[in-house]
Amino acid sequence: MNQSAGAIALVGSGEYSLAMQELETQLLHRAISLGKDNTYIQIPTASSHEGDSSREKWKRLGQAQADRIGSKCVYLPIHEGEDAFTDHHVELVKNAGLIYFSGGDPHRVAEIFSGSPLWDEIVKQWRTGTSIAGCSAGAMAFGGTIMGIRKSHHSPGLGLLPDIEVIPHYDKMLGWLPDRVASFIMQSDSESTLLGIDENTAAVHTDKWRKFGAGKIHVLRGTFDCEQ
Predict the structure, then answer these.
(1) Is 39 left (phi over 0), alpha (psi -120 to 50) or beta?
(2) What are the b/e assignments for 24-38, b being 16+ CB within 10 Å?
(3) DSSP 14
(4) CA separation for the pair 218, 224 (Å, rounded)
(5) Which of 28, 41, 82, 129 is most open to solvent, judged by the fewest CB atoms within 10 Å of its CB?
(6) Given CA atoms 225, 35, 143, 56 in this order, what sign does their dihedral have?
(7) More confident call, 28 vs 152
(8) For residue range 162-197, what is the model confidence (pLDDT) as tens digits?
(9) How many angstroms separate the CA atoms of 123 and 1, rounded?
């Protein structure tokens, strides 16, 4: 991985929460130390189809976290495919300190961002020091493949981490969908590393992968060197 790039955080759950405030602060401050702005970008795409009340809830939570951290919060209303092709939205992510994809439907994130100028700009900013975080659906969307937890089939991810697949909420998912989780682990035709990330826990890459939070990073298939 590009050693001059920004941090990446794959978060099992807890975006914008007190439990993850320290992580989000660290991600932002690392980017600032690399010359990025003290700007916290919220991307609600994964749940934006749930309506105005859901959008307002996430906007409020993100603003509260940014206020606690002491950062400028920018809510990026990427609700439909055309929103990722808007020049204004592309401009807003330039030189951002932290760009955060919150939870919901990972397939929706990939469908809306794939091939868009906004995604291209986000990757460009990450390569020059911006931190990128994805929680739950956001973490899943960053991989090469998105596992079909809500759908019956797998679908392409955004490919930021092409050889990784993620099961978020892993400590809860075992109780919710044990048969589905077992089938993912046993999938023999996949060459990807499969990670189970517990709630309020993250796998964070800077110079190497490290665990943040109270839970565990479970390596369910393949190899993954993570400092626990």
Answers:
(1) beta
(2) bbbbbbbbbebebbb
(3) -
(4) 9
(5) 82
(6) positive
(7) 28
(8) 999 999 999 887 655 556 666 666 664 567 899 999
(9) 13
Give the domain ranges of the chain. 8-227
Task: Please give the structure tokens belonging to residue 137.
Answer: 């659906």
Helix (H, G, I), strand (E, B) or coil at 121: helix
- Alpha-carbon gap, residue 48 to 45, rounded angstroms: 5
Give helix 106-113 / helix 117-127 axis angle, nearest 10°.
100
Name residue 171's amino acid.
Answer: D
Distances (CA, A) of 62 to 21, 22, 67, 83: 11, 14, 9, 20
Q: What angle do CA 149, 155, 156 make, to 5 degrees?
A: 130
Third-level CATH fold of 8-227 = Rossmann fold (3.40.50)
What's the pTM? 0.92
Instruction: Answer yes or no: are the C-beta atoms of 8 and 142 closer than 8 Å.
Output: yes
